[in-house]
Structure formats: structure tokens, C-alpha cells
Design goal:
With about 150 residues, this protein is α+β, with helices and mostly antiparallel strands. It is built from 4 helices and 6 strands. The protein has a 6-stranded antiparallel beta sheet with strand order 1-2-3-4-6-5, with helices on one face. The longest helix is centred in the middle third of the chain and has 19 residues, at about 90-110. The radius of gyration is 17 Å and the shape is globular. About 35% of the residues are buried.
Length: about 150
């Protein structure tokens, strides 16, 4: 009897497949051209890069409210003032975290009033700043990398 092997899938593939199976979620090409994206209503909410990191568009107001637990998880990287976060997908727990945050991203990006154009993902925004610095041009920091002004109690 011949043994069949199931092809291994990456944690990023598993995370994307899980969320892509939800009603209303579609997969396609990432707006930045780097990897696969998940979209709801034509709006990009998440994408993965070849390095196994996923970026989710939570929106900066949501990131402001969830900042402490996101950072304390040790699995999430934030860009100051940006709408995007980065999650490293190395474990099944990371896949669960991605799915939970994707649910939050869907709500944040489909609620009334969240219709402004998405800024560049973290990877592309950071690359633009680094390229400007290397070329000696003044680096205009994109809005997605600026620190938001958060109200303090």
C-alpha cells in the first residue's frame, strides 16, 4: 500500500484560507503588489508577504483602543499612526490571533464613517521612507507612519 502525503501549508496559507472562507470575504492580489489580499466589499483588509508576516488594516482608531493588548501579545508590530498592523504567523496560536483580528478589521472597515482611502501598507510605506533617505531626498513621512494624537483621560 502506498503512503500519501498531504502537502504542508504554511501558517500564512492557513490563516488566509480560514478567513477567506467567511461569508463576504474574497481573496485577490494585494494592492501593494506583494502577495495575496483579503477583501470585503472591494476594500482590502489583510494581505501576506513572502516572509510569513500578515498585515491587517485595523484602522488607527481601533489600534489606539487596542494598543496595549496588541503590544503585550508580543506577536503584533504597530506603525505609529497607521491603519495597518503586522502579525508574524509562526504558530497555530498566531493563526487564531490573525482570525480574531481579521474579524475586528472587517467590522472596523465596514462600519459607517470608515470610507476614507486606505493608506499604504506598512511594508510599502516604510520602503518609501527608506528609499528617500538612501537617495538623500527629504523623507516625507506618509500619514500611515505618523503617530496619532490620542486623547488622554
Amino acid at each position: 500500500m502506498r503512503e500519501t502525503t498531504v502537502p504542508a501549508t504554511s501558517y500564512a496559507d492557513r490563516a488566509m484560507a480560514r478567513v477567506a472562507s467567511w461569508p463576504g470575504v474574497r481573496s485577490g492580489r494585494a494592492a501593494c503588489g506583494l502577495g495575496t489580499a483579503l477583501k470585503v466589499g472591494g476594500r482590502q483588509l489583510a494581505h501576506v508577504h513572502a516572509d510569513g508576516c500578515a498585515e491587517l488594516r485595523l484602522t488607527w482608531p481601533v489600534i489606539g483602543r487596542l494598543r496595549r493588548p496588541l503590544l503585550e501579545s508580543g506577536r503584533v508590530q504597530l506603525a505609529p499612526g497607521g491603519d495597518w498592523i503586522r502579525v508574524r504567523l509562526d504558530t497555530d496560536g498566531d493563526v487564531d490571533l490573525f482570525a480574531s483580528l481579521a474579524s475586528v478589521a472587517i467590522k472596523a472597515n465596514t462600519s459607517a464613517g470608515r470610507r476614507r482611502t486606505a493608506g499604504a501598507c506598512m511594508t510599502m510605506a516604510q520602503a518609501k521612507v527608506k528609499e528617500a533617505m538612501r537617495s538623500g531626498r527629504p523623507a516625507a513621512v506618509p500619514d500611515d507612519l505618523r503617530e496619532p494624537r490620542l486623547r488622554t483621560p
